[in-house]
Structure formats: structure tokens, C-alpha cells
């Protein structure tokens, strides 16, 4: 079956407890550097169950961001099988993957990745414009998301006029505006002070627990990892799964 770009991954209708959202089987990933191939993910197999939360932990350079980029359809694995909602991602076209990503996945990057020339409002509205939503509607919905993350008053500010914590909240609003079924966050609190980090964490956990959004988060902080349902520990490109609260 091919991936249908129109597929909607609604998180509004809770699925059965053991609904497999993502299945990776024997995923390998190689980077080419200086003419040589360098394997950074080795035979990774895992299941992401809808509605659960996962912490990806591991040493710097172990392959956490590489894995997250693959889960988020930002990068294609070199080999292995990748099913998302029962659909074969490997067999899809790049347009289909872009459509699926836009509709199903909200990505929060450690470095925010906001467009500097756009206001907070327009940064948040952008994923909706890509979907063909009218500018007026997109801005309306973006404004609501900014209010949700406590930034309604700063909607017209550009990223340069915002603090790190505020920028990260804009990035989270942008990830949420399309009502994704899955949020992937790469060290979302890594650049923030403790208080702001706790606010951001609470926001992500509320989305997971109250709205059923599946959450996969890279973190170096074992305290944060323990707040999530399961830990996926990456070691030299191999994955070790263990329950976060008993690690
Ligand atoms: N675009 C790339 N080209 C070549 N090698 C890369 C590329 N991106 C990452 N790597 C290498 O792949 C390995 C895994 O990198 P990755 O960014 O996934 O690590 P990480 O676990 O996220 O580390 P950190 O905690 O420092 O963010 C590293 O050895 C890195 O140097
Ligand atoms: Mg990383």
C-alpha cells in the first residue's frame, strides 16, 4: 500500500491501547564522509505505540538525532523497514513523505529553526500555509497556539526580539498548529533555564496525557526521561529499550 498524502493522523479519537504507530525493523543508517561510509545506526528495531511517551537518551554522537530525523521523515534510512500507521514509508515518494510529515508530525528542534524575517505569528502559521489553508485562517489558528503557550502578547515579534525560552515556545506552537498525532522533540529544553525548561516539559507532558499526542523526546536529563513512559537508550548506534522509571 502506498502512503496517501491525504491521510489524517487524528489524535482526537483515542486508539486501542496497543496501537502501533511506528514500527522500525532492522533500520541501518550510513553517512558518507570523505568518500567513506560510516554506519551510525545499526539494525534498530522498535515500536512506537500511539499515545505513549518515549525518552531517547545516550551519549553525544550515539545517533539520537539521526534516529529522530528518520522517525520524523526528515531523513531516509539506508536500509530496513519503516512503517508509519501501517504504511510503508520506504516505498513512498518524497512528496508523499512531505505531506505525511506536514499532517502527522510536529518537530521541535533544539536550535528552534525559526525563520528570522517572519513574526512569531507567521512562523507558527507556516505549516498551515504549506497545507493550503488560507492566510487568514492560518493566522487565526497560529494566534490561538501562541496563546496556548503563553505568547499571545508577542505574536508580532520576530525571533530576534524573543528570549530563548520564548523562541522555543514559538517552535512548540508551530509544531502544534497542525494538531499532529506525533511530536518529536530534540532536546527541547537543552538551551533553557530550569524554570523555563520545566514549563516547556509540562506543556509537552500535558499534550501527551490530556490530548493523547504521542511524544518522542531526546534528552540528556535522566530526571526528565523518568517522566516519560519508556526510555530508548542509544549506544553507539544500537538501541536498548528499557522502562524509564526503572532505569
Ligand atoms: N550529516 C552528517 N554527515 C556525516 N556524519 C554525520 C552527520 N550527522 C551526524 N553525523 C555523525 O553521526 C553520528 C551520530 O550523530 P547524531 O547527531 O545522531 O548524534 P547525537 O546522539 O544526536 O549527538 P548529540 O547528543 O551531540 O546531539 C556522529 O558520529 C556524527 O558525527
Ligand atoms: Mg543530537
Give the helices and strands, then pairings.
Blueprint: E1 20-33, E2 36-49, E3 53-58, H1 64-71, E4 79-84, E5 87-88, H2 94-104, E6 105-108, H3 120-130, H4 135-148, H5 164-176, E7 182-186, H6 194-211, E8 214-218, H7 222-226, E9 230-235, E10 238-242
Beta-strand content: 25-35%
Estimated structural class? alpha/beta
Bound molecules: adenosine-5'-triphosphate, magnesium ion
What portion of residues is helical?
A: 25-40%
* C-alpha-based Rg, rounded: 18 Å
Global outline = globular
User: Which second-level CATH architecture applies?
Assistant: 3-Layer(aba) Sandwich
Tell me briefly what this model is.
The protein is α/β, with parallel strands linked by helices. The protein is built from 7 helices and 10 strands. The protein has helices spanning 64-71, 94-104, 120-130, 135-148, 164-176, 194-211, 222-226; strands spanning 20-33, 36-49, 53-58, 79-84, 87-88, 105-108, 182-186, 214-218, 230-235, 238-242.
Amino acid at each position: 500500500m502506498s502512503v496517501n498524502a491525504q491521510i489524517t493522523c487524528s489524535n482526537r479519537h483515542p486508539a486501542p491501547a496497543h496501537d502501533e504507530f511506528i514500527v522500525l525493523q532492522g533500520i541501518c543508517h550510513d553517512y558518507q564522509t570523505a568518500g567513506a561510509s560510516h554506519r551510525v545506526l545499526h539494525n534498530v528495531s522498535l515500536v512506537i505505540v500511539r499515545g505513549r511517551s518515549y525518552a531517547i537518551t545516550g551519549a553525544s554522537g550515539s545517533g539520537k538525532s539521526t534516529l529522530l530525523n528518520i522517525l520524523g521523515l526528515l531523513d531516509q534510512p539506508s536500509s530496513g523497514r519503516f512503517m508509519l500507521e501501517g504504511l510503508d514509508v520506504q516505498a513512498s515518494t518524497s512528496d508523499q513523505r512531505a505531506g505525511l510529515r506536514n499532517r502527522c508530525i510536529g518537530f521541535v528542534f533544539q536550535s528552534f529553526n525559526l525563520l528570522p524575517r517572519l513574526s512569531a505569528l507567521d512562523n507558527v502559521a507556516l505549516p498551515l500555509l504549506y497545507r493550503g489553508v488560507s492566510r487568514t485562517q492560518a493566522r487565526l489558528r497560529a494566534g490561538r497556539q501562541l496563546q496556548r503557550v503563553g505568547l499571545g502578547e508577542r505574536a508580532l515579534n520576530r525571533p530576534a526580539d524573543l528570549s530563548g525560552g520564548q523562541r522555543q515556545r514559538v517552535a512548540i506552537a508551530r509544531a502544534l498548529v497542525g494538531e499532529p498525532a506525533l511530536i518529536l522533540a530534540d532536546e527541547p529544553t537543552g538551551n533553557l533555564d530550569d524554570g523555563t525548561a520545566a514549563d516547556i516539559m509540562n506543556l509537552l507532558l500535558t499534550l501527551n496525557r490530556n490530548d493523547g499526542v504521542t511524544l518522542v523526546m531526546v534528552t540528556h536529563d535522566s530526571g526528565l526521561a523518568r517522566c516519560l513512559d519508556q526510555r530508548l537508550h542509544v549506544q553507539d548506534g544500537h538501541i536498548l529499550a528499557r522502562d524509564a522509571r526503572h532505569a
